[in-house]
Amino acid sequence: MQRRDFLLTSAALAAGTMWPASRAMAAFNPSPADGWRTFEVTHRVEVLEPNGATRVWLPLPSMQEQDWIRPMGNLWQGNAGSAHVLNDRDRGVDMLFAEWDAGEKPVLEVTSRVATRDRAIDLAHAGRATPLSASAQRRYTRATELLPTDGIVRENALEITRQAKTDQDKARAIYEWVVDNTARNPKTRGCGRGDIRFMLETGDLSGKCADLNSLYVGLARAAGLPARDVYGIRVADSRFGYKSLGKSGDISKAQHCRAEVWLSGHGWVPVDPADVRKVMLEEPPGGRSLTDDMVADARKRLFGSWEMNWLAYNTAHDLPLPGSHNVTLPFLMYPQAETADGMVDSLDASSFSYRITSKEITAA
């Protein structure tokens, strides 16, 4: 459904408000000449089987990085009794939280604008990256319920990095190990859960991006490297020839988690071993080997660079959901809803309907 159609068919919905990320971001004018692209992403959600009071949480673009992503604001409309932005700076997440009274059929639409630019780190030459603060160092090396750093996770991390002499060597050794030893499982629901202890203890190293890239993050933290998952969604087709690594138009099922590792002199370094495995499985004609030229190219490219046809929402892992009945999410990458019956399955379209669309905004 196009935005103009939504406005015509939902005339009773209340008007919303624009929240720019900051005054500086609101004034930012992204230039294609400098490599910037601007995207408009719209979430439209309906809770089809409400019971009692209903609550909805939608992820908003939360990451503001000077060189590669800049949120430009969010606009909402719908019939919610109340709606406001919640910020959790410690976990690095913004979300729109909306509530409805019993008897209402919840409908909500949120449109976000964000500017992105491809990023690549020159790992051969150290730069002058600002050192990671002590609090950030603790945050991105600490264990969480789904990202433990002891036991079998630490044992594997130490073995993988046993011959590594530098932090960069450790980061690359873990990346190569994840690429070599995991597999993308197309039957995994959504993006997976990221329970890395279970993966290692069972020996089942298959899954999707939230499994494979969380495995990278957990192993990196266990090896003493600050690392984090970055949760987001693909917003455009790939310009580098990868049919499997892009999505435009209807992006309702294009959620994708990436990872970053902190290296002194370079700052946050982008990695994505999960997408190497996605190329192997899905890039036509499918079933490519690790020695395939396209796989080898992706493997080289995805340690140190990201094509930014992708919107980064947040870095929140093991997230207590504010305003819920004591719910903790593995991550906030999908729309979430709760009724008197409990949390609604965000992957079950029969009870929770949503459509996410993207379009690129070209310069006038």
Walkthrough of the structure:
There is one protein chain. This protein folds into two domains: 164 residues, Immunoglobulin-like (Sandwich); 166 residues, C8orf32 fold (Roll). 23% of the residues lie in helices and 30% in strands. It is built from nine helices and 20 strands. The chain is globular and about 60 Å long. Helix 8 runs antiparallel to helix 9. A hairpin with a 7-residue loop joins strand 16 and strand 17. The two termini are 25 Å apart. It has 364 residues and is of the alpha+beta class.
Beta strand %: 25-35%
Question: Within the CATH hierarchy, at the fold level, what is the topology of the largest domain?
Answer: C8orf32 fold
Biggest beta-sheet profile: 5 strands, antiparallel
SSE run: HHEEEEEEEHHHEHEHEEEEHHEEEEEEE
First and last CA, distance: 25 Å
Structural class of the secondary structure composition? alpha+beta
Low-confidence parts = 1-14
Judging from the principal axes of the Cα atoms, what is the shape? globular
Count helical runs: 9
Radius of gyration: 20 Å
Strand order in the sheet with the most strands: 3-6-1-20-11
Kindly summarize this structure in a few lines.
The strands form 6 sheets. The protein has a 5-stranded antiparallel sheet with strand order 3-6-1-20-11. The N terminus is likely disordered. The protein has 2 domains: 164 residues, Immunoglobulin-like, CATH 2.60.40; 166 residues, C8orf32 fold (Roll).
